[in-house]
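Continuing the series of single-chain predictions for the mutant panel. This is the parent chain; the variants come on the following pages.
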Amino acid sequence: MAKQDISELAKHVNLPQKHTKEIVEYLKHDMLISLYRKNPEHPAYLADFNREMNEKVSSVYKEKYGKEFDPKVHQKNKRLPLFLMGPPGQGKTASYISAAKEICAELGLNFIEHVTDNYVPDRRDFVMVVQECAGENSAITFGGVPKAEEVTLDDGSKQSVLKKALNYRFTVFERCAGGVLLFDDAANAPSVIQNILLPVAQNQTFQGLKIPNACIGFTGNLGALDGTYVTELSSALLTRVVPMFVTDTVEDFIKRGYAYYNDELSDLGYFNFLNRNPKEFADLPKAGQKSGFACSRSHDNFIQQMRSIVERNGGKGKGEAESLNEIHQAAYSCFGPELGGKIAGYYNSYIRGADPLAYEFVHEGKFSAEKLKEKYKGGASPDDISFGYQFATACGDYAVNLVTRSKDGSTNLESKDFKTAIERFGKSVLALNDSEFSFALEHMKNKLAAHVTNYSQATKDTRELRNDVREKIAHTINDLDDCTSGKRAILIKVITDFDKMSGNNNLGAKRGGRNKMA
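Parent structure:
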């Protein structure tokens, strides 16, 4: 099945199609509700903590949804778990992780992404417990080994009963603030395992163990439709969950990536490749294919491999050239020969041309119009345009790195380091054509917002630069001698978003009383 047919899979399975961004919002709501304590006074020794959690949940709920949290209403509304279905590597599990991280940030909780057998629970932890269902075929190994236990009856007599020695990870929720219990690849679980999952979905109980303050979730692939093997899903299980078809988008992937890879190495220019080649973002495995294929997971794996390779060879600005052959090999492994070859070609140009020139211009402050013209001959040919976008990406990366490296520059808008970084960036990208210049501004703006939280504020979808930071960037680039009226219009549109900023109509005149930004 071809790339463009992935969106058609939802029609084959008769499910509503949701993007990961939408799924994350659903999950954040369910996770928030799950953390509310129905009986905060019990047990007594946790009453203070329980009341504190309920106050936080109520406050965040009102801020997010604009109305008071009504516990009576929510206690009657059963939280049916989401069952996220879709092709491999499309962000199903990643959606749960992303939503959990955002909820933890809003409530001031510690996110524990991997619970091991050595984990010691803490009241302010929000845990992520992922139980793989594929390959499990025994109710005993999955649900717990039977064991005899002596209990005391009301009359004081003792009686031996049969209980189960449950997986330790399932027992940690009652000692934490809450968390996520995710049954991964549940569509590939045999019927005996699916039957065990019924009470989890229906009552939040697992083999007799109550799982408090947890958001339950399920994921699964689609079988022959996406090249994976699945068993027949239990109709009883499907009536206890909310099935949804999930696919990722390149826009959502890049937004998550800006926030996650917020260090000097960052994404090493890969987001630019995806921006320029959005049709290469998602594919399905072909019959007999041994290499990887395009999906969110593969793109993420490739970025992480590149980062490790470049860091080992000297780091950003130094190790890319020596890493080129290994980057080619990583691309072929992650995506196969066709897409891997295209990515290899991209990095030949990026590492041998655009990146070192941007390093020299922005990082070292040695701008040369003549050197740029040798690589970028007017921006008319496809190769010129491709180079322009690569150069714009690298310039933005080095400018943000200069800011983040400086303690003063990352906290003080009036610092020399901040001004120097923006001036060098502006002088370098002003020489590009309008489309590449606009892309350079957008890239730098988004990356700076994600990497320097002092300069940005959280929004519903991502982080955005504060108005005063935008104005400072606009003023600084506007004051450069090479900023023409056409470039100034783009600067206002991309950086200040026209009339969305109070100071937009009052941006100062250029040196010598020349054109104002308006």
